[in-house]
## 1
Amino acid sequence: MQSLSQQQRLLQKLSPQQIQLMKLLQVPTILLDERIKEEIEENPALELDVENDEDKTLDEKIAEDIKDEFSQEENEDYLSENDGDDFEHIQIEDYVKMGDDDADYNHQGDGYFHPDEEESFSFQPKFESSFYDHLMSQISLLDLDDRKIKVAEFIIGSIDDDGYLRRDIPSIKDDLSFRQNVQTTEQEIKQLVAAIQSFEPAGVAACDLRECLLLQLRRLRVNPNVQCAIKIIESYFDEFTKKHFDKIQKALDLDGEDLKEIMSVITHLNPKPGVLYSYVNKAESYILPDFFVINNNGNLEITLNQRNAPDLRISNAFKDMLLDYDKGTKKDSRQKEALLFIKQKIDSAKWFIDAIKQRQQTLLLTMKWILQFQEDFFLSGDEADLRPMILKDVSDRTGMDISTISRVVNSKYVQTEFGVFKLKYFFSESMATDSGEDVSTREVKMVLNEMIAAEDKTMPLSDERLTEMLKEKGYNIARRTVAKYREQLNLPVARLRREL
């Protein structure tokens, strides 16, 4: 049986401004300029506060197109009845404040980093050839007809970013037939793959690591060491990957010095030939600090990168249009429609400017508490001075949600006199030593890394032995924890750390 009932519930919803702020918090400084440019392109009511009028030409042209609507003699009914009600509630003085400096919304105040005015932050794009384009440009070196060129192009398109062709020949043949309507044979595909494997860089289009290394070795100048290296990869690849050097040495009847020279030939090859041409995200390849920490005679001072404090304001052209409308006498429906459009764009611009301001305040507040928590490190630069700190510690002190702190910490950097650090660097869990003192897990990793760096590479330390040595230093942790920390440090197991 169905029935109707009323329920009263309290729901929490994010406003458009809060959503916009959450998105802006995640944007690193190096990409903030692009985000602001996108907003300015979408909203003609928003502009940078620059003295050069030429930079405002585009906004003013768009604004003039709207302003022309005010001078139309036509009085067509473009507005619905509800739109007319919204228009009646528009207060011009809410959008135009004559003589009020706050109308410019310039939030660059004290406490921010001010570089010299002559310094330019304009980014010059770097044009580079992609890995795919580099391979495609070499097809012309082959004597192929149009059909074979299409097959070769499809094969190159199937090569991954590392430079490997991991798709099998039958699958390539089927895709060419059904998707490209190109008829070919497996034999022809194999011949073209072999031709592409002669391209630069050496090792490209290999199906696996073994073939990749062989392709590179066969291009080297022939000598006894290269010939022996080829034999090792062809016949003893499994022993090579597991570093069973004694088996290889016994099978090929080599002395230790000869084996060392042969291994040097192999280890100098490139296991990922495509990486040299791979695309690197600009945000990852260029580090632009979000904060600057300066030690002023023992007093730590924080400044925010100026790029986080752009001079944004509402377009003067839009404010002038509202003034012209307010002074006018004839207000037809077309003018009302234009006025509602202007109101919408100005509101959107205000929201964005406020979000940028809140972003600055949130970044500075978070960094302030990180600085207070890790003051010893910022004064000494010694990793051992880092205190255990998690997101909740900063959240409790700032009064902000953990998710907000996480967004601030993500992809943000701070420049100190000891170098540039990612904010995540300062966060680590704690563990208790035998003396009952809480230490950062980062300190344990640092000690573990030092142990492995100082070990005898001919007889590397096992995880069990590393665990015993850490316990001797007062760090009572399990062997599986040692293995986890070792993996986080990108250090292989003892067998794979072995050297001749």
## 2
Amino acid sequence: MLSLVLSCVTPPQQSEVAAPIEPVPPPAPRQEPIVEAPKEEEVFDPDSISQEMYENTKVDVQALVGNLNRIIRTRDYSGWTENLAESYLREISSQAFLEEKTEELYRRDQAIASSIGRDPRQVSKKILRTARDYFENVVVPSRSNDHVDDIEFISDNQVKAYTIDARGQRLVLYNLVIIDNQWKIIS
């Protein structure tokens, strides 16, 4: 018996037409992130400063501080700010800095009053609102007669200037850095 199976094939409907198959690209080779070896920070060696450079820098810093003393004694605010690094001027103009210095000034004034027999509770608080207030109330009374006894190189272009008090203690006067070939106060 012979059976014959006949089938009708109908053409596919438009919606049944398959989209052309696009070839799948091979996966890209996996790239590992490039990790550079950490750079060793150059460590400043104070012994790299020659005696001549030390002496010349000390003379320059002493001259700067002498000029600052004159500026401060004459209450020349703009002359003083010309000797500040911009970052330091921004710092001393900030509200946080001024609030902190207001409290320090108040405690200092109370201690002075107490030491001369006055009631420290009677001391009025001077509010520092601007860098100029800081200059007038903190810098002028304390920095008009400074002198540099020693310097310490922090880097090739940064030094700390010290004075030595009556007890022989080294006190930091200024932290200085060279900016545009001029020494500027950074703190």
## 3
Amino acid sequence: MEKYSVLNFGGIGNGKQDESTAIQKAIDACCRNGGGTVFIPAGLTLLTGPFCLKSNVTLHVERGARLIANPDESVYTQSAFRENKGEGSIWISGEHVENVGITGGGIIDGNGIAFMGAERKDSYLLKPFDVIDPRPHLLTLIDVKNISIYNITFTNAAYWGLHFIGCENVLIRDVFIFNSLKIRNGDGIDIDHSQNVNISNCHIESGDDCICFKNRREYAEYGPCSDITVTGCTLTSTSCAIKFGSENMDEIKNVVINNCIIKNSNRGIGIQNRDEGTISNILISNIILDCRLFSDVWWGKAEPIYVTAFPRAKKDGKDGGIRFPPNATKGHVGKVSNIFFSNIRCTSENGIFVAAENASKVDNIQFKDISIHLNKVTPYKGGSYDCRPCEGTDMIFDDTAGFYLMNVANISIKNCQLTWGENRPPYYKKGLKLVNCQAIDILNYAYPTDKHKVELNTQSNKINS
């Protein structure tokens, strides 16, 4: 396969002027001649506005080279979500193509802070905009088949990082993503209406979800999000490290997550169904998980595992009624079922939370070999669970429990353990809290009732409340 250096197409690489034309010329020539590699030589920094990947082209950013997004907001004119123009723009893209790669060991830099407002203690303020939010997503691939992204660093996204929409056969491995923990909406990887995806051996730090599975309404024609594996990743998020939803108008199914480490995150693993789509057949195992509280700018209350199904809020705003189906004035939430958690070690300021609109919405959730260590380590107020974006009560204010279950049915808790840390506030009270639940099966769940006594359920008990 031939190699095409951007230097042969007018590239300079001094980081001072927009060189998207040179990059696009190299990509177009590579594609036109049957495919190959477009490479950015080591030692170059290319400032660039939007450009588009083509079929049979691998973008190879050599170690020591850098692509950096042009900070001029006027060059970002294409919405990342079609007619929904208020959620970021497109920088690096590809649509209706196949056999696309990104590799090389170099850095792709979204220049995110250049698009932010003033810095605060917990986050950057968002700048106002007229129609299109100019904050560029790092990579947006739509209807692309056969994607290979490996041995590359993405950093400093102004909005989402890697967004795969309607894609098939996606391999992401040995990738580093370093986004600012203060930039809101700064996701790491978003898998949207995509199938046959493998994510492995990646390190992701982001101010929003590290890895998220969803089905956005803007791209409904691409069908379900399914057949996905995630393994060997380390994740840190100011929001949720691994999330399902909240946008889900189709099916999310057949997902296996294994052998990952989550640390210093606001929420660990979150299933957050808020639309009519369903979530089912999810296996999550062998996880070490460390959570803590952050400010209310960020969704989550340090829930290490979070499974919820509530209808989306009617209120205005991008997470309210704007996401309803066409002509709908009220939200409807689909079912969450057949979710299996096993061999997970949780350290957090909050417990596991499973809740729904009613008991028909969350069914057959199994927890096996889960340990929970609760310890207060930040000054942020606890004693709450975060249900945003939810029609009704956004927050549940109550005592902290190892497992807090509300309006759910057919939940299994087996061979689990709760311990309290040295810093135990008065609202750290219960091993188990049940609110309007049906058929809760508990076997060998050990938790302290005071400093000297441990309660152990040694027989399987079907409990209703």
